[in-house]
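Data card: per-record layout.
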Amino acid sequence: MRLHPLALLAALTTLTIADVEVTSPAAGASIPAGAMTVTWQDSGTAPALTALTTYTIQLVVGGNDASTQTPLYTVANAGLFSAGSTVTATIPAGLAGSTANGYFLKFTSVASEGGTVINYSSRFTMTGMTGTTPATALTAITALGGSTAGPPTVNSVNNGNAAGGAGGAVGGAEFTVPYQLQTGLTKYAPMQPVPGTKITANGYTPLHPTSAFTIATTWMPAPVVQTTLTASQTYSVSSMENTAAAQSNPTGDMAKFLARWKD
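The structure for this 263-residue chain is written out next.
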């Protein structure tokens, strides 16, 4: 039996995608602030979960576009897939507001062959929240019209871009992979945020979760990362000539006063 070229391409492509399917929280669920249990399973898309080593789970609020998302809390950091498919964390109530279907989980997995894959859970509601949802995130959530579908998967498993090496074309997905989870000779850092025109925040919220570190007690091995690329700014700046006429030089006492400083 001969496969059509497109069917063969689809079959080969499937083998390169690692998928984690989050089963809890379920789509549209209402989860009270406090203890939250996250469970997942193999979605059936090759390779199996056994091909993944560690994972990081973040609670995120916002839309499906990365620019409208705000990571709020690290549910798990450097967890081991070999330890099971359930993790429990305590979610503080003051992170954001109880925005309907505004929350989802960002599940970043490290593959044993190199690189990462980011899967997102379905959307759910956090109840009993006492904080304020960022305006950008709230606008994006409202635009979704109540949909419970999370953002699409970002597959960067040993494909030469996000974390698998220095080659390949650079798009936008590479810069969404947490820095400490990237491998290979090239690493990618997100763009610096652009300051707003108004101060609207009443409290401080970190842009990214903290990362673990180990204090060196012996000589460290030579670094292998050759370069770090930072995402380019996507905003533009325009300027115009000031056509106002220059003011005349001061006269009288002011002119005498300024003349004292000419030497």
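Known properties of this structure: The first helix runs from residue 5 to 14. The longest strand covers residues 69-80.

See the next section for split statistics.
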